[in-house]
Amino acid sequence: MNDEPLIRWDWIARNWDNGSPFAIKTLLESHVVLAFLPVVFGLLIALPLGVACARWRWLYQPTAGAMNVVYSLPSIVLFSIFLSVTGLSWSTVIIPLTFFTLAVLIPAVVDGLGSVPEHVRQSAVAMGFRPLRRLIQVELPVAVPVVLGGLRVATVSSISLVSVGALIGQGGLGNLFTDGWQRQFYTPIIVGIVLIVLLAVLSDGLLVLAQRLLTPWSRARRRTA
Amino acid sequence: MNWLIDFFGDAANWSGPDGIPTRILEHLEFSAAAFLIAAVIAVPLGLLIGHTGRGALLVLVSANAARALPTLGLLVLVVLLIGVGTVLPILIPLVVLAVPPILVNTYEGVRGVDADLRDAAYGMGLRGRQVLFQVLTPSALPLILLGLRLSAIQVVSTATVAAFVGLGGLGRFIIDGLATKTYSDVIGGAVLIALLALAVQLGFTLLNRVVVSPGVRQVR
Q: What is the number of other CB atoms lying within 10 angstroms of the CB of residue B9?
């Protein structure tokens, strides 16, 4: 709506690392922390919870129900609720995003464990694996592709959702959106979108790589087939 | 609790252009429009690439990349580019948000149909199109509905950000409440959106009961 060019490269150069708390580099760093910590916490919580839900099926329905409710809450709603509890800090964003991660990861862990073929489980029992060792050495590795599939979705959405935190002043690169909006200035908005997508694509690629390294057998099987 | 009573007990909140009923209608209006557009794009495309297997990798990679597009950033950019005269600016980011879950689940649903079943259908003399619509689609329906449900819920809850650029919907209560530190409005708006999302969830559960063939449901 104005004559502003879509991208002002000199603005990016000046604001990349100028020492202010709103330098692009600083925002990028806080974005990475705000996006990845929830995924790490979420994974640490979802693994035991998912295993418990797979072991005792009656736990799964209520857990899944609760997670569905959490999933349906808009992120800005959770952010504003936690704003009144935690005050304005990183945890205002990290705790709600951890819940979103859980909503994706718990079903992934349960489905992953459910994808372990019965004959594999029975072979492990026959070879003398006790339940805990069987879980760690047989069932979880077989479940890796499904769990990592969930982890990929959780990571990418977490990276994208952090930006909504800008509405309460804690949004990493999302601050570029509110800034660009207030000043009717395209460049920060485009920089923010591009960096967020790059960050997401890069993390997704790393997770795909991790899956290849963690499940060497899936490649071996494809080669012989 | 007092906040809820403040919000829902205030008669002024129930009427006029910024009353609860109007805001709910606005919210449903752009959510439904965005969801329908996304479904019209994503379901046929998902069926097609699932059935033919052509271009699947390209479509899935772009769908995953689209998941990363931040709705707020896209919204702000579109509004600056084309102005807020219509609801179009909010529809674009919401459609972008809604397409990937539908597309990926539809594709996975069609791909995941038992190969024996597909072969049996061809063996019985069904043509490609008949196999797709009479065998693959009904078998894939639970996953297609899952994709539609996830996408509808995300749209309903994300339509909140429309209020940031001055559009209506239930987000108004939250954004205005945050700006004026009227927390009863924030919580009230949040409760309304959550209820709306739960209603969507319930609607899809019922739809699942009605449209999924009993034979398919038993297997799952």
A: 12
Q: Look up the CATH number of the domain holding residue A21.
A: 1.10.3720.10
* Whole-structure pTM value: 0.84
Cβ–Cβ below 8 Å for A192 and B197: no
Residue whose pair of structure tokens reads 């069987």 in the numeric block:
A134
User: Taking the CA of residue A164 as centre, how many other CA atoms within 13 Å lie in the half-sphere pointing to its CB?
Assistant: 30
Residues of A in contact with B80 (CB under 8 A): 1, 180-181, 184, 186, 189
ipTM comes to 0.81
Q: Residue A53's CB: how many other CB atoms inside 10 A?
A: 22
User: What is the chain A residue with the closest CA to B193?
Assistant: A73
The answer, for B201 touching chain A at a CB cutoff of 8 Å, is yes
Residue A119 belongs to domain spanning: 9-220
Chain-chain contact of B80 with A1 (C-beta, under 8 angstroms)? yes
Chains A–B, number of C-beta pairs less than 8 Å apart: 126
Q: Are B89 and B80 a contacting pair, CB within 8 Å?
A: no
User: Would you identify the CATH topology of the domain B2-219?
Assistant: MetI-like fold (1.10.3720)
Per-residue pLDDT of chain B (220 residues; tens, 9 = 90+): 566 777 777 766 777 777 888 888 888 988 999 999 999 999 999 999 988 888 888 887 888 778 888 888 898 888 888 877 777 888 889 999 899 999 989 998 888 888 888 889 889 988 888 888 888 888 888 889 989 998 999 899 888 888 888 888 888 888 888 888 787 888 888 888 888 888 998 899 899 888 888 877 654 4
Across the interface, whether the CB atoms of A72 and B160 are under 8 A apart is answered no
Whether B200 has its CB under 8 Å from any CB of chain A: the answer is: yes
Place of tokens 């809850």: B157
The domains of chain B are located at 2-219
Interface test with B, best of A151, A187, A189, A194 (most B CBs within 10 A): A189
B42: Cβ contacts below 8 Å, ≥ 6 apart: B98, B99, B100, B102, B103, B106, B147, B151
